[in-house]
Amino acid sequence: MRIGLIGGGNIGKFLLQSINIEGLLSGGKIVGIYTRNQHAAGELAAEFAVENYSDIQSLIQSNIDLVVEAATIQVVKDYAAAILASGKDLVLSSVGALADVDFFRNLERICKESSTKIYLPSGAISGLDVLKAAKSIGELEAVSITTRKPPQALPGAPADREQVIFEGSAAEAIELFPKNINVSIILSLAGLGSDQTGVKIISDPAVMKNSHSIEATGSFGTLSLKVENDPMPNNPKTSYLAALSVLSALKNIDAVIKVG
Description:
This protein is of the alpha/beta class. The protein has helices at 10-21, 38-48, 56-61, 73-85, 101-114, 128-136, 170-176, 182-190, 240-253, and strands at residues 2-6, 29-34, 51-52, 66-69, 89-92, 118-119, 140-149, 163-169, 197-203, 210-218, 221-229, 231-232, 235-239.
């Protein structure tokens, strides 16, 4: 599997190290990279033996099998359609872009026409199979997530006290916190949609890790789940588990037995 990577930030560097240096993806390698910072892209290309592309279209037209996006929501909105229409599958890191229902449906249409797929890593949460099972028979009634993070991970949060930074829907949350609450969009796609998924974001100077508490009710009963995960060592805004889940999604693409 020949992989094209968009983005040279924390997740991108993690994937380059894990796949190209440590060999953690059997039969797979990142062969091309694009990032807006061409100086940084050149350094990454040299360090990890990949080709540096000066624009995304050149990356798409190369002989890669799929594209991994590890950049921004805007990059997804600008280029996801072209990637999928070209016949390349797409692994999305910035899943918040799919909160836009019209955009989501357009990508879904392109996938059907081009026989391509979008892979969405589960990110920093679990319990998605329960939601999908209840949703499949229309008996999922309510879903919410409370995210608690240290102040340095939330723009404008007070450093000296706990404070609820946001409370509303997942659709509203991703507009205000595009780099912090991707998990709510994954939750909403598995469940009731971004308008019907409740989100509360709490800044808490007493915590050192990101935590997500998920509550759901339906005909199956009640789901109550808490996930506490470490941020990446050099960026408190990025979940380490989110980076790991992208690698896991790549490993699962060619698996002959898939769980969940």
